[in-house]
Amino acid sequence: MSFGPFLLLALMEGMVTSAVLALAAVGLSLVFGIMRVVNVAHGEFFMLGAVSAWFVSQWVPGPPAVAFAAALVLCPLFVGAIAALADMTVLKRLNYEPEATIVATIGLLYILQQAALSFYGPDARPVPAPFSFRVQLPWFGYSGYKMAVVLASALVLLGVWRLLAKSRVGLIMRATQYDRETARAFGINVDRVYAGVFALGGGLAALAAVLIVPIQQAHYLMGTEPLLLSFIVVIIGGLGSLRGTVIAALLIGLSDGVISTFFAPTLAKIVATLAVALVLVFRPQGLFGRRAL
Q1: What is the pTM (predicted TM-score) of this model?
Q2: In angstroms, rounded to a whole number, what is the distance separating the alpha carbons of residues 46 and 229?
Q3: Burial group, residue 220, by CB count within 10 angstroms (0-12, 13-18, 19+)
Q4: Cβ–Cβ under 8 Å, residues 194 and 200
Q5: Whole-angstrom Cα distance, residue 24 to residue 213?
Q6: CA 286, CA 131: separation in Å to the nearest integer?
Q7: Which residues cross the membrane (predicted)?
Q8: Which of 10, 224, 225, 240 is the most buried (most CB within 10 A)?
Q9: What confidence category does residue 3 fall into, taking pLDDT thresholds of 50, 70 and 90?
Q10: Phi-psi region of 83 (alpha: psi -120 to 50; beta: other; left: phi over 0)
């Protein structure tokens, strides 16, 4: 193939990375933006989504599409319930103090990781894709499932935006974000809002994992890279900025696809880390974040 088709292939692979990364990073951004909690265990929610998808694929009979559809529904709900339980039993008792919650979520990270090792095992295991047709382009064939991942991610992100911007639930979340004490004085159950936001963040990470696990494999240590990339995206886009997070995910994902194709995956990670360093030096609030007063 000539340079043009190779570039197109790299961009298409980058779009898949961007789609999954945007879902995971938006969950992390929501938790910080509304709760002011840096969730170090976010990558393990991603891992739990992939591991639980493997269990669902083994337990649900019938064609792979049926098991995958069940995983898309059940796994985010399962991980979201674990996240809500962690919020109510741990973070709430710490009164969401920044330093304490960082330490607590580090502990939660190791608990979830070791639980997955105990119940799932150390092996990487595949999850069948719901379908396997390829879209034939003039230069090469491309996975129809990967295209479906990008479309599904876009639809979910649109739904999250509508939830936050156009619904009463989103209005309550924003009110809690601006001043939780005032929101409590107006009768808003802040504890329930925080539990719901933490569950939503964990559920989005799990959904991202369910979408990507047919392309990769489920493994109990797979949460580290999504966590680091999500932090990179959130820092570049601006802490708590949904728009900034999505745009930063596109930038990081597309650059990762191009650099990994033409050079090396390690160089792509170096470039992403360098981008974070430059943003922190020249625009600490991120590309779309608000400067602290």
Answers
A1: 0.93
A2: 12
A3: buried
A4: no
A5: 14
A6: 39
A7: 6-32, 44-60, 66-88, 100-120, 140-164, 193-215, 227-254, 261-282
A8: 240
A9: confident
A10: alpha
Model confidence at 293, pLDDT cuts 50, 70, 90, reads very low
In angstroms, rounded to a whole number, what is the distance separating the alpha carbons of residues 51 and 190? Answer: 31
**Residue 25 and residue 233 in contact, taking contact as beta carbons nearer than 8 Å:** yes
Type of residue numbered 268: A
Measured CA to CA in angstroms, residue 127 lies from 47, 79, 227 at distances of: 13, 18, 21
Query: How many CB atoms neighbour CB 117 within 10 A?
Result: 14
Q: How many CA atoms lie within 13 A of 73 on its CB side?
A: 6
Which residues does 272 contact at the CB level (< 8 Å), separation at least 6? 229, 232, 252, 255, 256
Tell me which residue of 226, 227, 251 sits closest to 237, measured CA to CA. Answer: 251
Q: In the chain, what are the domain boundaries?
A: 22-222
Provide the CB-side half-sphere exposure for 184 (13 A, CA).
7
- 258, 14 contact by CB (below 8 A): yes
Q: Tell me the one-letter amino acid at 169.
A: V
| Alpha-carbon span 53 to 279, nearest angstrom | 36
